[in-house]
Here is the input.
Amino acid sequence: MSNDAKYELLYWPGIPGRGEFVRLAFEATGTPYLDVSNQVEGGIHQILALKDEKASHDADGNPPALAPPALRIHGEGKNGKSLLLSQTPAILAFLGEKLELAGADATEKAWIQALALTALDLNNETHDTHHPVSTLAYYEDQKPEALRRATDFRETRIPKFLGYFERVLKGNKEGQGKYLVGDKLSYADLTLWQVVHGLKFAFPNELKAREEAGEFPTVFKTFFASVPEHGQLKEYLESDRRKPYSKGIFRHYPELDRQ
Ligand SMILES: N[C@@H](CCC(=O)N[C@@H](CS)C(=O)NCC(=O)O)C(=O)O
Here is the structure.
């Protein structure tokens, strides 16, 4: 990682969060990037500036971001300025193209985008288990609703999504259970992997019970083991650059897990 990196990730410090999908794309391809809030002194101010609700554009003419993550890409904006891109799936689609994580042709590209969006739906639904009423309110102020939402999520949504990805992995013969599309790692694989990893943290009983019952064997075994084998991912996952889960999207509240 260098201070003159072409790519600057703007995201909250200290948590994986939605920034993690972007970090994984960089780490899987060995691409230098600057993780501004974690690596630059005072970098948090750049994240807070992103959320300035009075801003209509930045110094390079980009529309503002509604919320992090955002990616600043030097030299890719209008007239050689910086491009500021927000929305996780838009960032991933842009980077996927640049880092060769987006598929071999236009058809694969379209499939990968749809599959990544589906994995991000699962990510967003995970967030809503602890914040079903209001994103701004504390979990402690929405506990009964969270329990109802999490119960439904565990019982109906997790099997629906993981069953879907199991079918996709099995249906892609070329991928041998390792890739959702074709025979090469894509940002859809990285996105799904991160969501499954996060779910294992948030709902350990639920995920363990399903794995031990032999459900979704391709997702839990072949796919889950294979993704970290790419690029610098293994090294990254063991490093202190990989932040621990805490009060982000993937939270472990034992009362919301399978009892
Ligand atoms: N759909 C957006 C959601 C962005 C989002 O919700 N970001 C969170 C952090 S992961 C945030 O800081 N939200 C603050 C807000 O919405 O005011 C994306 O995928 O990037």
Remarks:
- Strands lie at 7-10, 34-35, 70-73, 83-86.
